Every structure is written in C-alpha cells, then in structure tokens.
From TrEMBL:
The keyword Ribosomal protein does not apply. This is B12-binding domain-containing radical SAM protein. The lineage of its organism: Archaea, Thermoproteota. PANTHER family: ANAEROBIC MAGNESIUM-PROTOPORPHYRIN IX MONOMETHYL ESTER CYCLASE-RELATED, BLL1977 PROTEIN. The keyword Transmembrane helix does not apply. InterPro entries: BchE-like, Cobalamin-bd, Cobalamin-bd_sf, Elp3/MiaA/NifB-like_rSAM, Methyltransferase_Class_B, rSAM, rSAM_horseshoe, rSAM_sf. GO terms for molecular function: 4 iron, 4 sulfur cluster binding; catalytic activity; cobalamin binding; metal ion binding. Residues 179-393 form the Radical SAM core domain. Residues 1-134 form the B12-binding domain. Its cofactor is [4Fe-4S] cluster. SUPFAM superfamilies: Cobalamin (vitamin B12)-binding domain (SSF52242), Radical SAM enzymes (SSF102114).
Length: 450
C-alpha cells in the first residue's frame, strides 16, 4: 500500500476519520476495532488473516482518491476472508463518485456519502434490526441488482456532540513524520469551507458552512491527548482554523490557561490572520504555521479563485517570522492558463518572501472539484488512473505547459528553493540537515520517473 506522498514526505498520520467513526460506534455500545494496515505494514494476505480472526459483521474502509484501488482490493479481501460480512466504504472519493465506485467494486455493499458519524449509526441500527436501507440518509447501496442512492444526510450542526476520536484503537507508536516515528496528535477543530478555490474538494465532504467546536471542547481533547496518550506534538488539521479569529484566539488562551506544555502547528489563509493572533499562538506553543499561497502570480490567483493577494501573503509571512514562528508555504504548478513566466514568479516569491519551507505540487483535478470539470471539458487529463492523483507527478497537461514541462518546473522549483546556500546553512544550524537531504532527494527522484 505504498503511496508516493508517504515516500516523499515520510508522513504517515493517524486515520482521524476512522477514529471518529469508531468513537461514535463505541458510544452506541458496538464492539469496534481498527486495523491500520498501512501503519502496521500488513500485506493484503496478512490483513485477510487478521479479519478472519476477528470475524466481524461489518467491515468499513475509508479512502481518498489516490488510495482507492487499495481500498477496493481491501474490500475484495474482506469478502474473501469474511464472506458473510457487510462491506462499507466512506471517504472523499466515494463521496465524489458514488455510483462509479460501486460499479468498479462489485464486492462493496454500501457507500457512505459525506460526513459519516451520524450515517454509520443509522446504518448499523438498520442492519441490526433488519430494516430497509432506504430509510438511511447519506448512503448508496445495492438492491435487487440495482444501485440505489438515498437522499443526502444533513450535516452535523453541533460538533461538540461528537466524541473524541478512539485513539486507543490505533497503533500510535507506528506513525511517522519525515520518516521518524513520532507520537503525533492530529486534531480537527472545525468543518466546512466557505471559500471557492477551484482545486479543493473539501466542501463536497464537509459542506460550505463553517461549523466549529467550542474552545473548551477542543482543549479538552488536547488535554486528553497529552495526559492519556502522552502526546506533546499536535497538528490542527482544519481547512480553515482561523475563519473565526475570536474562537482561534480563545483556543490558544485556553491552552495557556491550562498550562499545557505542547508544541503545535496549524494552517491559515493569509487573509484570515493577524499579528496579534500569531502572538498568542506562539505563546500557546504554536511553532509552525502553514499558508496555502498557491501562486506568485496575481493573475493565476484570480484563475484559482483563491481570493487573496500577494501583499496579504507577504504580510502574513512577515508577521509569523516576527513572532518567532516558522512558516510553510504551499504552491501549485500547472494551473490552466499558467505560463512558464508565471511559474518563475511563484518560485521567486517563495524564495524572496522569507518562507522557511515551501511545498510545490502539481495541479491535481480531484473528482468533484471545478478544476476536474475543466480538465474533463478541455480534455486535459492524461490518465484516469486514480493512484496517480497524488499531487506529486502531473496527470494534467495545459494548453500552455506539457506534462514534461510541468514535471521539470516542479523539480526546478525544489532545487532553487532547497539548494540555496543560505537555506542549507540555516538547517545545519538547527540540526535538521540530516533529514532534509533525503526528503528533497526522494522528491526529485519521483519527479524524474514521471
């Protein structure tokens, strides 16, 4: 189950979505187990044997687009080793392409579309009580040889009602950052994205309405992660942590008031951050902030419908540096309409803006996004092999740039940013060069294969 993003970044994070599903089921009195086959390094055969030993009534799998074939193979294995079990799949990919996914995976019985916590409870109760599945909102399933899709599930309004993820079911010592095993607590404090970026698939899963947990509820979970699981490194994985700046401030204040000794990271739009907010983040232990900047060209930012300016990006980076935080900026290369000159502007911006780290990815049109519809309409996709939709290797050409040119430009961007003498010197001073070189090398190696 090798995925290129794991190869390049050495990142393997706990499956938060599955842990949430497990938590709501445990709360309802169901016996639940999680097998993180990737983290445990299990082969498909070993996974099958583990399933056979447990002999569950229902087997659930989650998947994003680049892992969908592994997810389908897992469903096949589940049916082979546990033929009487009901198979269920959730995640971003089946949410975007529910009918297509069921057709491609004959052994899949039921798909959960969108947010899964409320749906899975209703689904299992219906199965348990032998009720008609037509009464369960938010699913797609098979009946009498046909595929049936029920009405959409309403979004969960009060996120505080959802129990904390069932981390006790996860192999917490098996997750990695930069190839090193690190106990990492990833926490989701809000759901929903009110913005309109053409490349983002988040809104189809969590909706456009911003829904947030209370500061107390969030910090209660952080405290549990620290005290119960002995985790002191936290990543807030929200799409838009600072949409409600007052709430973000109160979360940081609550961390300070409880004297929690943690290091944490978060992300923000550059137009939704203030220096005052960054100051209290830093005081509360936040060491890194991630900005999705996407391009160094104002023209391309408009095409992306990003809704930010380069001046806002420069200011947000400057403020974070002034309060003593490190800044990661992400950029996309290969947007339709983008020229080589635009890409050079992006590289120059990444270098000149003061970023500590930069991530350069290829425009990847995930199903359900506006860019996916553009790519289909203009015949820009060069493959529909979902396993290649990793954001590392280009799978979409444009009228301006070929696949080969996009690959070459991404490789060039990484070399220009990371092979600067000033950057290398800073990493040596910070004692980080030992892991930086393998990461950059592996990324460039993958790009050369494309």
């Amino acid at each position: 189950m090798d995925i290129e993003t794991i190869s390049v970044l050495g990142l393997r994070a706990p499956p938060l979505g599955l842990a949430y599903i497990a938590a709501v089921l445990e709360k309802e009195g169901y016996d639940v187990d999680i097998i993180d086959a990737t983290a445990l390094g299990l082969s498909f055969k070993e996974l099958g044997n583990e399933l056979k030993k447990r002999n569950p009534d229902v087997i659930g799998v989650t998947s994003i687009t680049p892992t969908i074939y592994d997810a389908m193979k897992t469903i096949d294995i589940a049916k082979e080793y546990c033929p009487n079990a009901i198979t269920v799949m959730g995640g971003c990919h089946i949410t975007a392409l529910p009918e297509e996914t069921l057709l491609e995976c004959p052994n899949l019985d039921i798909g959960v579309i969108g947010e899964g916590e409320a749906t899975i409870i209703d689904l299992l109760k219906a199965i348990e009580n032998k009720k008609d599945l037509s009464e369960v909102d938010g699913i797609i399933y098979r009946k009498d040889g046909k595929i049936k899709r029920n009405k959409p599930r309403k979004l969960i309004e009060n996120l505080n009602e959802i129990p904390f993820p069932a981390r006790h079911l996860l192999p917490l010592d098996r997750y990695t950052v930069l190839g090193e095993r690190v106990k990492l607590g990833n926490i989701l404090t809000s759901r929903g994205c009110p913005f309109n970026c053409i490349f983002c698939s988040s809104s189809q899963f969590y909706g456009r309405k911003f829904r947030a947990r209370s500061p107390k509820n969030v910090v209660d979970e952080i405290e549990e992660v620290v005290n119960k699981y002995k985790i002191k490194s936290i990543e807030i994985v929200d799409d838009n942590f600072t949409v409600d700046k007052k709430r973000a401030w109160e979360i940081a204040k609550e961390i300070i008031d409880r004297k929690l000794d943690i290091w944490w990271a978060c992300g923000s739009r550059v137009d939704l951050i203030t220096k005052e907010l960054l100051q209290i983040f830093k005081k509360a232990g936040c060491g890194v902030i991630y900005y999705g900047i996407e391009s160094g060209s104002e023209r391309i930012l408009k095409i992306l419908k990003k809704g930010i300016s380069l001046e806002q990006a420069k200011r947000a980076i400057k403020w974070a540096k002034e309060v003593g935080m490190e800044v990661v900026g992400s950029f996309i290369i290969g947007t339709p309409g983008e020229t080589k000159e635009d890409v050079m502007k992006t590289i120059r911006f990444a270098i000149d803006s003061g970023l500590d780290f930069a991530q350069f990815t290829t425009m990847t049109p995930y199903p359900g996004t506006e860019i996916y519809e553009i790519a289909k309409r203009e015949n820009l996709l060069v493959t529909k092999d979902w396993s290649k939709f990793t954001t590392i290797k280009p799978i979409m050409r444009t009228k301006e740039l070929s696949i080969e040119e996009i690959s070459s430009l991404i490789s060039f961007a990484y070399r220009k940013f990371y092979l600067r003498a000033s950057f290398i010197f800073r990493q040596i001073i910070k004692g980080r060069f030992k892991w930086l070189l393998p990461v950059v090398k592996s990324g460039l190696k993958l790009l050369k294969k494309s």
